[in-house]
């Protein structure tokens, strides 16, 4: 069962590359899978990174949308860790458009109580 899940995740970037309309749904599913335990965590992380390289704006918007729509603190934390560790560290893909998107979406998820 574990190998089937890994194999399925590894095919997703090719599907998204050929059909961009699947990027939001696939990204949302992978964002949910980021909360898997550490041994299973690498595959969705790497798959999301590959999809990000093909469609940075769509991937990032979907991950931020997932962060703002879930009530699970662990899920939010894992998604934000992915953004920080994988996206922000990919300096070659951090264009001004992505930088602006990070700022805009980041401001939306910061609770007002943190600003006080």
From TrEMBL:
<dbReference type="InterPro" id="IPR008383">
    <property type="entry name" value="API5"/>
</dbReference>
<dbReference type="GO" id="GO:0005634">
    <property type="term" value="C:nucleus"/>
</dbReference>
<dbReference type="GO" id="GO:0006915">
    <property type="term" value="P:apoptotic process"/>
</dbReference>
<dbReference type="GO" id="GO:0043066">
    <property type="term" value="P:negative regulation of apoptotic process"/>
</dbReference>
<dbReference type="GO" id="GO:0003723">
    <property type="term" value="F:RNA binding"/>
</dbReference>
<dbReference type="Pfam" id="PF05918">
    <property type="entry name" value="API5"/>
</dbReference>
<protein>
    <submittedName>
        <fullName>Uncharacterized protein</fullName>
    </submittedName>
</protein>
<keyword id="KW-0053">Apoptosis</keyword>
């Amino acid at each position: 069962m574990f190998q089937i899940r890994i194999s399925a995740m590894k095919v997703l970037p090719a599907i998204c590359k050929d059909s961009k309309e699947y990027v939001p749904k696939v990204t949302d599913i992978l964002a949910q899978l980021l909360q898997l335990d550490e041994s299973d965590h690498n595959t969705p992380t790497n798959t999301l990174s590959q999809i990000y390289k093909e469609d940075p704006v769509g991937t990032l918007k979907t991950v931020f949308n997932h962060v703002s729509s879930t009530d699970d603190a662990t899920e939010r934390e894992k998604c934000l860790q992915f953004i920080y560790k994988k996206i922000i560290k990919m300096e070659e893909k951090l264009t001004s458009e992505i930088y602006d998107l990070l700022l805009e979406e980041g401001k939306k998820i910061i609770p007002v109580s943190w600003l006080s």
